[in-house]
Structures
1.
Amino acid sequence: MTNTLTLRTLLPVLFFALVLALPGLGVPPFWITLLSYVGLYAIVALGLVLLTGVAGLTSFGQAAFVGIGAYTTAYLTTHYGLSPWLGLLAGIAITGVCALLIGAVTMRISGHYLPLSTIAWGLSLYYLFGNLESLGKYDGIGGIPSISMAGFEFGNGTSMYVLIWVVAILALVSVQNFLNSRAGRAVRALKFGTVMPEAMGVDTARMKIVIFVYAAILAGISGWLYAHLQHAVNPTPFGLKYGIDYLLMVVVGGAAHVWGALLGAGLITMLGNFLQEWLPGLLGSEGNFEAVVFGIALVIFLQYANEGLWPHIQARFAGRSKVRVPADAPPLEQLPKPATGETILEVEAARKQFGGLVAVNDVSFSVKAGEIVGLIGPNGAGKSTTFNLVTGVLSITSGKVNYRGRSIAGLSSRQIASRGIARTFQHVRLVPGMSVLENAAMGAYRRGDFAPQGGILAGLLRLNRGEEGKIMAEAKRQLERVGLGDMLDRPAGSLALGQQRILEIARALCCDPALLLLDEPAAGLRLKEKEALSELLAKLRGEGMAVLLVEHDMDFVMRLTDHIVVMEFGTKIAEGTPAQIQVHPAVLEAYLGGV
Ligand SMILES: Nc1ncnc2c1ncn2[C@@H]1O[C@H](COP(=O)(O)OP(=O)(O)OP(=O)(O)O)[C@@H](O)[C@H]1O
C-alpha cells in the first residue's frame, strides 16, 4: 500500500469522525442546524452526481422526489399515526415507483429535451403537493412526530444531526461502491454514448432507469429526514428553485465526484445562508437576492470551471485512486471456443438500404477460426455498414448473418456480444477519465458472477469483491497480453492514439470473443505501433482467434491478412488471398482507375 493510499483511506474516516463529533465539541446549535441541512442536501446531491455528473443525464426535478419522501411520511404519521419507519419504507416505495414510471418515459429522451422534461415533471409534482386537499394545500402538513429507535427519540437538533450525517455517510459510501463496480463503470461510460457500452453487453436503457430510480430514492430519504427534522412540510422546498439549487451544488462541488456533492452542498448552503443575511442589508431592501448570485455563479461555473472544485482539491491532496488487482483471483468463465479452421461467421447476401441508397448490396463472405480477413474498399464502399450489420449496430434489410451456425441478424449489439463477438471502433470509444485497467475491465461486463440486476445491489453493498477481483485480474492479463501491462493506472485519455487503439483490443479480448471485429485498427498509428499491432494480431490468430478487420492501410492489410474481401459502391467486387487481390483487375480499376 502506498502513502497516498493510506491517506486516501484515512482522510475520509477522520473527516466523518470529526463531523459526527461536532455536537460534542461544543459547536453552537446554529451551526449544527446549518450542517444538518448540508447533510440533507448532500444526500440529494449524491444522487445527482450519479445521474448528472457521471451519466450525463441532467435533472432539475430532484426536489420533487424529496417532496414525495417528505409528504409520504408526513401524511402516514399524522393521518394514520404510523411509525416514521413505516413512513420511510412507504416513502422509498412510492418514490421508487414514481421514478420508475417517470424514468421509463423520460430516460429515452435525449439532448435538451431531457432536462426540459425534468422541469415539467418537477413542476407537476410541486403543484400536486400544493393543490391536494389531503396534503394541506400550500399550508402543508404540521405536527409530524419525531423518529424514535429502540426507545431513543431523535427529538432534538443534535440527535437529528447525527442521524442525518450517518445516512449521508452511508449514501456516499454506497454511491462510491457502485461507481467502482461493474455496473458503475458502465454508468461512467454512458456520458460518452451508448454504442460502446451496448457492444460490451450493457443494457444502457435499463441502466439509466436504475440510476434514475436510485437517485430519486436518495432524494426521497432526504425528504423523510427533512420532514422529521422540521416536524412540518409545505410545497416550497420541493419546487423548481430547489431543483436548480441541487444542480448548482453538484456543478460547483464537482459534478462527477461523490465528494463534490458534499463540498457543493456545504458551500451553497453556507453561502446561501450568509447571503440571505448580508445582501438585504447591503442593498437596503428585502428579497431573495442570493438567487441572483447563485444564477450568476452557475453560469460562471458552467462556462469556466464545469468540472467543479473537487478535482482541484483532489489533485492537490488525494491523488488518483488505484484499483487493486488480487494476485490469486480465480479466472473468469470462458465460452467454448471453435476449432481452428471452423467457419464461424457467414454473411450471405447481406443487404442494407438507407432509403433509396443501397449501402451494402447482397454481399457474401465468411470468416474461419484462426484466420484474419480484411474488408477493404475505397471511401463510401460500405465497409463500416457491413461491419455494423455484423455487430448489430444497424438492422439488416435482407440476407443472413450466421455466427457459429446460428443467425444473429436482428439481434442487438449486446446480444451479439454475449455470443462471443467483440469489436473495436473506428473512432476510439474509451472513457478518458477512467484508468486503462478499468477501461479494459468494461469488456468483462457480462462475465460477472451476478446477473446484471443482482450485480447492481451487490455493487452498492460492496458484496462484489470476488467478482471485482476476477474481472480486474482478467483485465490486467489482457492488458499484459497486448503490451500495456505497465500502464494500468494511467487515465485512458492520457495515452497516445496508438495505445488507445491497443487498449480497445484489450477491452475486446476481455469480452472472451472467438471473433474479433476491428474497425480501422491501424489508423493514426506510427510504423512501430503498426508492427506491434500486426504481431499481436498474428499471435491471436495463432491461438485460434478469428479476426475481421476493416482497414485502409494496404501495406498493413496485405502483410497480415489471410483473405481479403473488396467492396466498391456497396458491392463485393473481389475476394481472395492478398496475392490474388493485388493483381485483380477489378481491384486495380477501383483503386487506381485502371492505371
Ligand atoms: N446512417 C446512414 N444513413 C444514410 N446513409 C448512410 C448511413 N451510413 C452510411 N451511409 C452511406 O452508405 C454508404 C457506405 O458508407 P460506409 O460508411 O459503410 O462506407 P465505408 O466503406 O465504411 O467508408 P469509409 O472508408 O469512408 O469509412 C455511403 O454512401 C454512406 O454515405
2.
Amino acid sequence: MDHFEYRDGMMHVEQVPMAEIAAAVGTPVYVYSTATLVRHVTVFREALGALTDPLIAFAVKANPNAAVLATLAKLGLGADVVSGGELLRALAAGIPADRVVFSGVGKTEAEMRLALERDIFQFNLESEPEAEMLNAVAVAMGKVARVAYRINPDVDAGTHAKISTGKSENKFGIPYDRALSAYDRAAQLPGLDVRGVAVHIGSQLTDLAPLEAAFVKMGRLIEALGDQGHAIRTADLGGGLGVPYDPALPVPPSPAAYGEMVTRVTRGWNVRLMFEPGRVIVGNAGALLSRVIRVKQGATQPFVIVDAAMNDLLRPSLYDAWHDIRAVKPNGKSTTANVVGPVCESGDTFATDRAMDHVKADDLVAFMTAGAYGATMANTYNSRALTPEVLVSGSQWAIVRPRPPIEALIEGDIIPDWVR
Ligand SMILES: Cc1ncc(COP(=O)(O)O)c(C=O)c1O
Ligand SMILES: N[C@@H](CCCC[NH3+])C(=O)O
C-alpha cells in the first residue's frame, strides 16, 4: 500500500512511486498518500472513541485540495472553514453542510449570507460586532444562525509566535472575562441561536498542558453560562495537535494521549464536542518532491539548489520551520549542506548546515511532512507556476491539480490602452 509513516524517528516512504511521478508530472510536485490520510483519520477518531458523536471538522486551510477533501468526506469528516471559498470547496467535495463550522475574525456579510443559504452547522463568532452583523444578515434572510463564541483563554500554547492564537494579544476570540456579557447580549438577538463555546489556542502544539489549561477554563465557562441561563450544547475544542517534523526532537503527544486528556477534562460537560484538526490529519500524509538543479560550492559550504522554492513551500521562510529533506534514492553517502531554492531572496532557504543524504544534480529529494500548509500556501512569486499535486492510492496515482502552463502566468494582467 502507498504509505508515508513516521516511525523509529524517521519518515518512511513506501510504495509511493516518487521517480515515476516526477518523470510524468515534473517537479516540484506535492504527493499525498491516501493510505496515510485514512490511517490518520482512523487514529484520531479512535482516540475520541469514548466521546458520544464528536464532530470532527477538518481544518480546510491545512489542505484544501478537492481530492483530499473528498477522501476525508468519504471517511465522514466535517469541515472547519474560514472563507466563502473554503466553504464552497468543502461542499463541492461532498462534505455535508451540517458538518461545517465557519471560523475567522473577518467574516463578511457576503460570506455570512452564503453560509446561511447553505445552512451550515455553526458559526464560531469572534467578536461582538460580528454577532450584530450576523444577526442582521440572518434576520433579513428570515433565518436563525446557530452560533458559538470563540473564547480567547489567554493561554500560551508554547508554539511559534506566528501560529499562536490563544494569548490576549492575539486577534482571535473574545476575552474570557467578557464572555458572560457577550452571551447575554447575543441571546437577545432574534437571528442567533446561541448554543456553543469554541476555543483554539494555536497550531503545532507539542505539549498537552496548555490545551488542558484552556479546556479547563472552557469547562468553568460552560458552568457559569449555564448558571446565567444559557444552555450550552456544543463545545468546539479546535485543532492544534502537533506532528513530528524533526526526528531529533521528542515526538509530540499522540492523538491517543490527546483523546484521553479531552475525555477526562470534559467529563460531565453534557455537550456535543467538536474538533478542528488540520495538520495531524494531513501533515505527514504529504511530501514535496523536488529535483536538484545543481550543487554550488559557496565560500564555506555547499549549496544544494533545488527546483522547489519558498513560493512552493513557505513554512521554512515564514516560521523557520524544519522539514526533513531526503534523497529519493539515497546513495549511502551523507553531507552537510544548505538547501535553497531559485527565488531571489536569501530567505529562500529550506535548510542551513543540514546533515543530509549526499545528492548531486538531477537527483530527486523529498521534503517530508509537507501535506499541511504546503500547497495551500504556495504562490507565484518570481512568476513561478503554482505547484501541482498528486494523490496516490494503492498502486494507482492521479494528478489532482495540474501544473498550469507557463503562459498562464502572463494571462490575467491588463495593460490599459493609455499605458501603451
Ligand atoms: C480556528 C482554527 N481551527 C483549526 C485550526 C487547525 O489547526 P491545526 O492544523 O494545528 O490542527 C486552526 C489553525 O491553527 C485554526 O485557526
Ligand atoms: N500556516 C501555519 C499554521 C497556521 C494555522 C492556522 N491558524 C503553518 O504552516 O504551520
3.
Amino acid sequence: MSAAIKPLVAGNWKMNGLKAAASELEALIGGYDADLASKVDSMICPPATLVSQFAQTAGGSAVAIGAQDCHVNGSGAHTGDLSAEMFADAGASAIIVGHSERRADHGESNKVVKAKAEAVWAQDLVAIICVGETEGERKSGETLDVIKAQLAGSIPSGATAANSVIAYEPVWAIGTGLTPTADDVAEVHACMREELSKAFGDEGSSMRLLYGGSVKPGNASELMGVANVDGALVGGASLKAADFLGIMAAYK
Ligand SMILES: O=C[C@H](O)COP(=O)(O)O
C-alpha cells in the first residue's frame, strides 16, 4: 500500500469467457458498493469479443472495462489484430500491454511493448504495462536487473500516474498457486518505485504499482498490505465475482 495512491484491482480474464459470463460482471457490479468503490478502483479486462458488451453492461457503474492487448498501429492490413482505437471505440478505458504470456507466446520485446503503450496513450487510454522475471532468472539472482531492464525498455517517456499503471507479475507465480514472500514483493516494488521516481519524478512516485500472480481472497490482505503495492492484476480469481470481491475486500 502507498499513502495517497488509490489502489486498483484489475481482473485479466485472458482467453476465458463467453457472452453468458456477463452474469459474473453483473454480480461484481452488484457487490461493489459505494463504500468499497471509494477505497479501491475496479476493472475487468475480458477477451476482446466481450469488451463492447461488457462496457455497455458496466456503463454507469464504477467498474471499468479494459482490454488485454492491442496492435502498435491504429488501423491497417493486420489480419486478426485489434487496435487501441478499436478498444476505445468499444468502451475500454485501459489496455494491458507486455503481459508475460504475450512476451512468451508472441515474442513481444520491450521495444514492441513500448510502442503498444504509446498506441494506448494516443487514444487517451491507460496502459497497464507488465514486467516480471522467470523462475530461472529469480533462481540465478537476476530478478532486480530483469525488472529494471524491462521498466527501462517498456515504458515510453511521458509516462504519468494518470496514463500508466505498472504490474509486477513474476512469471513463475502466474496461474501456479505459488506466490513470492511478502518480503520478496516488497523488494521488487521498492526497486520499481525507485526506478520510476528516478525516471519520471513525482509522476513515478505516484504511479500505481500492481502485484499479479496467484492472488486469491486468502492471500490478498497480506499481498495488498506490502509497501508500494497499490493493487492487484488478477487472473484466475477474477473470473468469479465472489472471488474478485473477496480480493477487493482486502481494502475494506
Ligand atoms: O494478469 C494476470 C496474471 O497473469 C495473474 O494470473 P493468475 O492470478 O491466474 O495467477
